[in-house]
Amino acid sequence: MSGESLSQRGMRIVRLLTLVLAIGIAAGVVAGCGGNDKTDSLSSEAEKNIEKGAEEAEKGLEKAKEEVNKGFKKAKESAKEAGESAKEGVEQGQAEAESAIEEAKEQVENAK
Question: Is the pTM of this model over 0.85?
Fold first, then answer.
């Protein structure tokens, strides 16, 4: 699963949770409708809670995106280091092989 699809999935979950929260609060407000000050107060409080929940969800999503990006950067760095290490190993092996070939040539020359 790619980082992009994780981000999209996270956004869908946040939107769904916000929608469910809003519907639940709205249902509670509708059930208590009577046109008095208490209902208005509850509506105002419900709106504030919805906004606060949406803000917290957005912050959580941003933090998750940052963590995913950090993970990708670390993976990229590790892959780069592994590639460099492999290259060094190949170069060292090649140098050792060339040295062994030269030594074998010298032994053949000395044996003649």
Answer: no
- The number of beta carbons lying within 10 Å of the beta carbon of residue 38 is 10
Total domains present in the chain = 1
**79-92 in b/e burial notation, b at 16+ Cβ within 10 A?**
eeeeeeeeeeeeee
Residue of 61, 48, 69 lying closest to 16 (CA atoms): 61
pLDDT tens track for 3-36:
556 667 777 777 777 777 777 777 766 666 555 5
Phi/psi region, residue 29 (left: phi>0; alpha: psi -120 to 50; beta: rest), is alpha
104 or 11, which is more confident: 104
25 located within any domain: yes
Asked if residue 91 is part of any domain, the answer here is no
